[in-house]
């Protein structure tokens, strides 16, 4: 599979969602309904199956540390920059940071890792890092925003895994992997059907969100913001990963793996989270589209320079 063929389905499904919404085929609430379906049903199913089938041994610790450094640096920079440079409020900052540093490790990461790296073993570790560490942090902050006083309630935070299907499914998946448990065949088949709907439905919802039949009360994404997010995602994060890899004395193939994974575009989960919590949707959906479009060139350049 070529790099181009990995991107084409994403562009097509996003365009289908936009066209269907523009023609009124899905109704005005299409993006919201589809997004909630993905967040509450399809995405948890996909995460549970992925993590429950993923062995928890044999991690490339230093390589994953290099990727983690790039993620923390870029998400943190985006989080801070959203407030200081663009005046975004507390609820929008985590979405801004996620748009800058949360990579599309699923539907794009798998074919690209297979094409450029030859296997997806390191990508599996990236998936674990994102869904078990990065996503819960983002979700805790977004959940805190729902408290009228903005307070951190220990009881509310500790109960978040039970109340949030993404975190709950991830934890259950890891627990099943560690214990060597497998769901019954009928349950596995049902979850597989739901999981298969996660990526295409999220992309159709993303496309539908790009067409608004009614004015949005949220402040739109400004060109300068999109340029900053794109630069952080497609340039800064791979460069930080490269520097961290050199500092940790990684081998050339490990450095390539870190750079390619760090250079993946913004995950559509960013938009799904933003939509679920009703904040930063305009920034999230446009960041996904722009970085996905431009990352074909930046990933090809990285592969050529380091491969």
Automatic annotation (TrEMBL):
GO terms for cellular component: plasma membrane. Its main location: membrane. It is found in: Cell membrane. InterPro entries: Mem_transp_PIN-like, Na+/solute_symporter_sf. Keywords: Cell membrane, Membrane, Transmembrane, Transmembrane helix, Transport. The chain crosses the membrane at residues 29-51, 63-82, 122-142, 162-181, 193-214, 226-248, 254-274, 286-306. It is a multi-pass membrane protein. GO terms for biological process: transmembrane transport. Belongs to the auxin efflux carrier (TC 2.A.69) family. PANTHER family: AUXIN EFFLUX CARRIER FAMILY PROTEIN, TRANSPORTER AUXIN EFFLUX CARRIER EC FAMILY. This is AEC family transporter.
């Amino acid at each position: 599979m070529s790099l181009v063929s990995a991107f084409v389905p994403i562009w097509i499904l996003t365009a289908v969602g936009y066209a269907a919404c523009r023609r009124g085929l899905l109704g005005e609430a299409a993006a919201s309904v589809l997004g909630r379906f993905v967040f509450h049903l399809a995405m948890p199913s996909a995460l549970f199956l992925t993590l429950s089938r993923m062995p928890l041994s044999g991690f490339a610790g230093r390589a994953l540390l290099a990727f983690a450094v790039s993620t923390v640096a870029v998400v943190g920079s985006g989080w801070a920059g959203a407030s200081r440079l663009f005046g975004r409020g507390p609820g929008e900052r985590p979405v801004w940071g996620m748009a800058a540093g949360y990579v599309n490790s699923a539907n794009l990461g798998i074919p690209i890792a297979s094409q450029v790296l030859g296997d997806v073993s390191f990508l599996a570790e990236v998936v674990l890092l994102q869904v078990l560490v990065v996503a819960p942090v983002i979700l805790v902050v977004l959940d805190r925003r729902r408290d009228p006083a903005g307070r951190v309630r220990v009881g509310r935070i500790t109960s978040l895994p039970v109340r949030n299907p993404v975190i709950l499914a991830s934890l259950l998946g890891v627990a099943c992997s560690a214990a060597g448990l497998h769901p019954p065949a009928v349950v596995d088949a049902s979850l597989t059907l739901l999981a298969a709907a996660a990526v295409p439905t999220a992309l159709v919802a993303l496309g539908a969100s790009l067409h608004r039949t009614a004015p949005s009360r949220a402040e739109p994404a400004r060109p300068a913001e999109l340029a900053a997010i794109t630069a952080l995602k497609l340039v800064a994060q791979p460069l930080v990963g490269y520097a961290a890899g050199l500092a940790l004395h990684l081998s050339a193939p490990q450095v390539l793996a870190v750079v390619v994974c760090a250079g993946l575009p913004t995950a559509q989960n960013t938009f799904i989270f933003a939509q679920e919590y009703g904040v930063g949707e305009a920034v999230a959906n446009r960041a996904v589209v722009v970085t996905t479009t431009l990352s074909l060139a930046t990933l090809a350049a990285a592969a050529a320079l380091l491969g």
